[in-house]
Amino acid sequence: MIRFNCDYSEGAHPVILEKLAQTNLEQTPGYGQDPYCRQAAELIKTLCQTPEADVHFLCGGTQTNLTVIAAMLRPYQCVISPDSGHINVHEAGAIEATGHRILAVPEENGKITAQQIARVCQAHWQDDNPEFAPQPKLVYLSFPTEYGTLYSKKELSDIRRVCDEHNLYLFMDGARLGYGLTAEGNDLTLPEIAACCDIFYIGGTKLGALLGEAVVIVNPKLQKDFRYFMKQKGAILAKGRLLGIQFVGLLENGLYFKLAEHANKMAAMIRHACEEAGWKMWYDSPTNQQFPVVPDDALKELEQEYAFAHFKRLDRNHTAIRICTSWATREEDVRQLIADIKRVSAK
Questions:
Q1: What is the average pLDDT value for the chain, to the nearest integer?
Q2: Torsion sign (Cα): 56, 41, 246, 169
Q3: Strands (E), 11-76
């Protein structure tokens, strides 16, 4: 079985494993206070052009989202999210379990707009008793979105402007950040994202690391006591150096972005084959996630050899699936899938 159902099927890039093995018997301080975490943090601050930022290393996306959001909000405040946002549909109520409500806004192609955010805030503050409802304080976005789509520089800048107008924080989920930054048509850079966001993170779990997410806290108001929140949420790893070492390996020679480019290239090849087969794309994604609408008879045959994620049942004869490539996807597997797409679509 060749798996195209997610981007974390494999373990870690060999460079990461080599660095972990080389440093395995070194003695270092624990809890992220080691030289490797400091080195990784400096690399990240240099790449982001944010010398005054704080950088912390956590283990996974859900843990990162709930820890960051809990740290950013007072008990009576809530987070605005696309209704397709990961925190709203894939995290088992983790945010609500911290005591904070999610205000889900209808998405279009996975995204929400500055105008939608403004309307949410206006509706709250124009109420006769605004203090009777959770107070909007934070906007949550993903880049790329759950559907592999991208916010443009203008869209993100407009959202930042509305956040400033309504005294909101902006938090970007970057679990797949590398895939977005290296996607064809993307016009955002890492420093521009850092300039727009109060907090964002650089995902490693889905892009070459065994595990790990690097949280970048740009807003100095949110830096104080963040490690208290990390500890309370079980997010401080005792052997923290394991996370720092991985981000050094991913970032010191640009490996992170090379791996992302590879995944996007593999996904583009698959998309082209799907389009040649006459299968439309449910979302126009330039990243490693593709969403073709596949006839059920063709899908049944393909699934004898390949694993995909079923996304949405469209009618009696068609299903939208997610085909997901990764940093480790082999071109020979992609070419085999392409050949099989041609074969089943020709019947």
A1: 97
A2: positive
A3: 54-58
